[in-house]
Amino acid sequence: MSESDDFVGLGGDSLGLVHLAGRVQERLGASVPVRALAADPTFANLVRRVLEASKATASGPVLLRQGERTLPVCFVPALTGGPMAYLPIADQLDGWTCYGFAPPRPGPRRPRTVAEYAEHYRGELAAVADRPYVLAGWSMGAIVAHELAHRAERSPALLFCIDGHPAWQRATALSPAHLAAVLPQLRAWAWAARGHALERRSRPPGNQGEARAAVAGLLALLRYRARPLEVPTVILRANLSSRGRHRLQRRLAGLYPEGVDVLGMEGGHWGLLTEAGATRIAALLGAAVLEQRVQEKNR
Fold it and tell me: Are 182 and 221 in contact (CB under 8 A)?
């Protein structure tokens, strides 16, 4: 690979740049802005940005956007992508300060349960949760965010779950819907963890080590049993019918006694992190926070 090789010219796209920035964050601990890569998607620019970010990197959450609002938004990473996967959403949240938490590095000490993932992020949350905040997560990040809200010294003002939520069951077995969603991905990533190539249409992780970590995360999800959380919650689900939305809201009412609002949105699971999906998510998040503030004043 030469310094002039161009990511877009080689077939990459905007969502691929998000995944690339996330992989750099996960593997190197360097936060590289996706906008900087989009403006100059050459290998030389990537190396330069990584070196600059590495010199400036400090422990703690990654600042995705600085704003003047007093209510920060904290994003919990999913299995892949790291905090930079949320940058398209942060870019649309004008006036908001947004943080993304750095995922645990691969290795023998990597978390093996949802509780351990939440405990890993608790220290990062404490660095920014000295005032009311919104806790958000996409996919498995939403499930970890639920557990993190339990463990935080200060509960979030709002939990915002993007196409992911804990199963709510009193038995040990997960619902058929959750199993149907998780098992095919688990099978594919377990195949990749053994060193086999993923199909072209499959999403990251893109190497054997990250596939092992993703499999461990999915197994943690399958074993997790959520506890009721007394925090106002919004759950955004992709391609959910009106009937399905009402059914899910009734089913999760016991898990969120402070109230849960289930919203449907067009687009697939991965499409929610594209520019179009991020614009809609940012609008729904802003409206949810505003509604929660109004309810608090009327109490």
Answer: yes
List, in order, residues 6 or more apart from 79 with CB less than 8 Å away: 139, 140, 205, 213, 214, 217, 218
How far is 91 from 273, CA to CA, in rounded Å?
A: 12
What residues pair up with 261 in beta bridges, in sequence order? 234
Take residue 276 and report the two structure tokens written for it.
């179009």
Helix (H, G, I), strand (E, B) or coil at 119: helix
Q: How many whole angstroms separate alpha carbon 96 and alpha carbon 69?
A: 5
pLDDT per position as a tens digit, 34-67: 777 777 878 777 777 765 665 444 456 888 888 8
Q: Could you tell me the domains of the chain?
A: 1-58 (1.10.1200.10), 59-298 (3.40.50.1820)
d(CA 87, CA 124): 18
Q: How far is CA 116 from the centre of its chain?
A: 16
The DSSP symbol for 181 reads H
Please name the residues in contact with 62: beta carbons below 8 A apart, sequence gap of 6 or more: 25, 31, 83, 84, 99, 100, 101, 102
Question: In whole angstroms, what is the distance from residue 216 CA to residue 220 CA?
Answer: 6
φ/ψ of 215, rounded to 5, equals -60, -45
* String of DSSP letters for 229-263: --S-EEEEEET--HHHHHHHHHHTTTT-TT-EEEE
User: Of the spans 61-70, 174-183, 188-197, 246-255, which averages the highest pLDDT?
Assistant: 246-255
Give per-residue pLDDT as tens, 96-153: 999 999 888 766 777 889 999 999 999 899 988 888 999 999 988 999 999 999 999 9
Specify the amino acid at residue 52. E
